């Protein structure tokens, strides 16, 4: 059920208090929270319904690599008690069902325009409002504009020439059809072996006639070892949710994940080996719970990486394929670690082949398949799991122009910058949810969404209470935050891989780690301090001055 589109040509601007872009978990909560404060709120969403990334990513095998009991809203005890997860790591249909449940329960759909894209957001200096235009010709004027457009919503798509020539079917993982897709007996080619590709491979292999996996950079992937949740366990979690949420908010990852205070080399080689075997057997991100320093100690990191490479050799029967599947040249956990279900095992199936794009790169798509420097691979279907223009892609996807006509594109020409990943100087009352200079991809995104929206709501409440019309951070505060972000980035191994985290997957994008790597808890503390004592790092205009 979506809001219907109205003819809008020549329409007068619709005046509202707050405009929220995006109906993922962040946008949904923002709409709920701000309307609950009595604001008039309009949500805008390009998709046909709520769910954000989970609305679009319907590919086979799509599943969250965070525990479901942790990957859900914490703000409502009622929602917590009414919803019951069935698996430790929920699959996409269940997560989308949860988003729909929350939208129904909070009556959010009537506040969204679906299948509608924002085409521009321009600050009006004279009237101090954001004028937001949409692709159906509507114009909104909002006092506050909240960008909850998501860190992974602009897919990189098909990076080769010839797509129009292909006689078979081309599918994008990030824009997967709503109708069932059959692989039965087909010769399928899959390009991309990040978290998405690693999930697709075992599923497609079940029914495809032949599957060729086109791998450029191998990922480190660890066994997920997903399990169904027992009712007694779920009941116990529900009884203890308050404490679990508090622990999540006070953790570096904003979620209940394994953590350790034990440095790798503080125990004997035998103990290390036993701990690694145990982590492998338990699955998930247990390695991060076994040792404390895998992201800062390169030697410790390499020993864990080598352990995982040995496991690949144990699983994959063909030694040549096993070698090709082994990631080298970047630290484990510097790319987002993948959690899989029988990914390496799939390469033992006789109809599954690995094509090494580093050895023979893809040249182009032909009528009948993919041409590589080693010849053509004949295919009936091509699946692209080639990733996203992450963190900044959706924010730069339309014109955003601030005070005095300052363009966001110009401001971020050398890389994203903001104060706390929440606000930017020269962009008054423009708020980012899960912005590129917060912990973004390094924290539980639903915890982060809620923390960001709560901060934004408090800031708006403060303005309304004090008779203030706008706020923006000072240049000095923004620079100080970016100095902190870059300073921390130098200490972590996360910046040592060429990934979407550092803009390395998009040609021409500024390179560098601009995410905050100090951990969710410290980030939350910085946000809290910034609000305390009257928002000293922000400049306000009073409503009376206007
Ligand atoms: P990704 O990690 O960026 O992986 C994209 C893959 O496509 C890489 O293997 C990349 O190789 C390959 N590729 C791109 N262009 C190519 C080309 N021209 N030729 C050959 N290969 C090419 O994207 P993703 O897998 O969609 O994952 C993105 C993020 O989404 C993850 O990091 C994660 O945060 C999130 N995600 C999470 C889950 C989950 O919760 N389980 C599932 C899916 C996604 P190179 O590395 O060589 O560029």
- From the spread of the alpha carbons, the general shape counts as globular
Give a count of the beta strands, DSSP E runs of length 2 or more: 20
Number of helices in the DSSP assignment: 16
Q: Can you identify the CATH superfamily of the largest domain?
A: FAD/NAD(P)-binding domain
Under the CATH scheme, the architecture of the largest domain is 3-Layer(bba) Sandwich
- List all distinct small molecules, including ions and cofactors, that are bound in this structure: NADP nicotinamide-adenine-dinucleotide phosphate
What is the top-level CATH class of the largest domain? Alpha Beta
Number of domains: 2
The pLDDT mean sits at 94
Rg, alpha carbons: 24 Å
The unreliable regions are 1-7
β-strand amount? 15-25%
Largest sheet: 8 strands, mixed
Question: First CA to last CA: what distance?
Answer: 40 Å
According to CATH, what is the topology of the largest domain? FAD/NAD(P)-binding domain
Helix residue percentage: 25-40%
| SSE-based structural type | alpha/beta
